[in-house]
Amino acid sequence: MKKLKFLSCLMALLLASLIFTSCTEKFTVEEIRSALPKLVEASARLNKIYFGEGFDIDGTVSDVNKNGGYFYCDTEEMGLHSILDIKDETEKVFTKEYASILYMAAFEGTSSDISVEGARFIEGEKGLMQKADSDVYEIADRVFDYKSIEIIKIRKNSVIFKINSIANGKNETLEMVLVRYTTEGGESYYRLDSPTY
Fold first, then answer.
1. How many whole angstroms separate alpha carbon 65 and alpha carbon 118?
2. Residues 94, 193: contact at Cβ < 8 Å?
3. DSSP state, 164?
């Protein structure tokens, strides 16, 4: 009986050790190179939604009210038909912490001492609507050089690294943060905790 208890305790310690080791395994440049391209590619349309032109107008539903009103979005091209759809897509690319920053201006609106800015997107009776006079930023068509990745700092489950890129014909080095999550089954998946624009 004592031997069985000892073996049970030993197995529990070994399992805990394996879990701890897998959770704290250090990042490698190869791991970043493997995870990053898919996330960067998926972030491109999210950048367009949050900072760029957003959605096209669904002309079959309503005209644009140019005085700060909202228009119905043509959601077919992106396949995102609601605020929930946009959030689900965002959290496949970015951490929930970074996503919450995006959500504030996009879905809640912002205010300061001198102005109040309505949410960029709202849900209308007939679907997703976008604010007609939202700020639109020029988003560079950025090309990343994944071979240039250099690790700056490794934390328990994240890594800060720098990567070279070309945007609008200019060479730029970005600092980015990648976070690793591990499922109960031991599978790793990744999210960005920094912008890609």
1. 15
2. yes
3. E
Tokens of residue 72, six digits: 């119905």
* CB atoms near residue 104 (< 10 Å): 11
Mean pLDDT, range 135-152, rounded to an integer: 93
* pLDDT tens-digit series, residues 60-73: 765 655 445 899 99
User: Model pTM?
Assistant: 0.80
State yes or no: pLDDT of 86 exceeds 90: yes
Name which of 155, 154, 115 is nearest 135 in CA terms.
115
**Average pLDDT of span 158-183:** 95
Largest pairwise CA distance in the chain: 80
In angstroms, the first-to-last Cα distance of the chain is: 62
Q: Output phi, psi for 192, to 5 deg.
A: -85, 140
What DSSP line would sit under 57-126, residue for residue?
E-TTT----TTT-EEEEE-TTTT--SHHHHHHHHTTTB-HHHHHHHHIIIII-EE-SS-EE--SEEEETT
- At 38-59, the pLDDT tens digits run 999 999 999 999 999 999 998 7
Contacts of residue 158, defined as CB under 8 A and 6 or more positions apart, other chains included, come to 177, 178, 179, 180, 193
d(CA 55, CA 87): 15
